[in-house]
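Sample 3 of the quickstart, ligand fructose -6-phosphate:
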Amino acid sequence: EKGGYDHFMLKEMNEQPEALKAAITGRIKNGKSILSEINNLKEFITEKLRKIFVVACGTSYHAGLTFKYFMNRYSKIGVDIEVASEFRYMNPHVDENTLVLAISQSGETIDTLEGIRIAKEKGAKVITISNVFGSTIPRESHGAIYMNTGPEIGVAATKTYTAQIAILYALGAKIIELTQGSNDEIRDILKGIEEMPEVYKKVLKLNERIKELAREYVKFQHMMYIGRGFGYPTALEGALKLKEISYIHAAGYQAGELKHGPIALLDEQFPVFAIIPKDSLYEKMKSNLMESKARNANIIAITTENNNEISQLTDEYICVPQVHEALYPLAMAPVIQLFAYNVAILRKLDPDKPRNLAKSVTVE
Ligand code: F6R
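Result:
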């Protein structure tokens, strides 16, 4: 059942080319979103929609945050996001002009479920993205989009995270098309998602190199993940993966926030893991790496292929193929996942069953 892999997590990370393909089949074609699951909400979207509010926990929240960056850049409709355990107790500003987007792999997370119940009472429409057919949250929603990635057994979310991002982009593209018309850049991004399974085959081959990095960095007690823009949710997800399966203290920060506090932590014992694709914020990230280097922090970076100066800025680096700026969260996800996995293995931990965690969080 592990298909020859040592762990479900390793199997599921390696399934990402097929899982992503399954997630977008019938939803993205030739750069166009053909998502039909929201057909019953078309009128609501074109006539009433004023705001989108994303509600999710953990890794699903990080997928949602990536969607927020996407929509803020390309859509006229604003996106708010809150973790479900906060949303449900905060008197969230949602009404009959709001689309609440619940993201839950299991479809059973209690905080997310209670969140959508509150949203519905306030008159909002709810769409859920889930991987478990017939689970409670999608059943209680006005629309459900199932990821179709096949079951995820490892406690750490991997293939469902990348599937979530791909589906969120397809959904976002559909909303943009309905509310403001289609555009070429969105088409390029969706085409890039259709090519992502091939990109994944290349990225997954980096595992031997990632293992080497894990061997060098397993000795540290801490790791600071940093990113900007689309790289920021990836930094958060990298930190979550590392802490949950390797029990190494890790935190993700917006790189621009370093000088407002976190940089005080950095020294030769506290390394940085930088998400630094060649994108519109590249030069800004570069300055943040220099600041970190000046504190003697060791630096690992994930960047874009053919970045000739990265070796001067970092101690170690990994390159992924060049993709559209909005797609680095997808292209880089397997790298942060594999890094956490390899560190856990070196620490002799079982990544499929991290202590104190459950696959489905049905209690508060
Ligand atoms: C991390 C992880 C958790 C879940 C979170 C939400 O790897 O798996 O952070 O993402 O518990 O779960 P779902 O998506 O089932 O609502």
